[in-house]
Specification:
It comes from Muricoprocola aceti. Helices cover 37% and strands 12% of the residues. With 67 residues, it is α+β, with helices and mostly antiparallel strands.
Length: 67
Amino acid sequence: MDRFGKKGILYNVVDEHYFSITAPIEVSDQFFGWVLGFGNDVKILKPQKVVDEFTEYLDKIRKVYES
């Protein structure tokens, strides 16, 4: 809530351990970096285009460490 606020955002309880949010975002490297800050405690579910862009972003980072 501290990042997105309450206005126009959908918060849903999934179960006792998880919740989901639906929020308008600007897709950017900065957004992806923010997501990465949560490690494996967060997952982008949709839209698929953003999921694909995020995995491409991760692939670019991985390639830096392959050489």
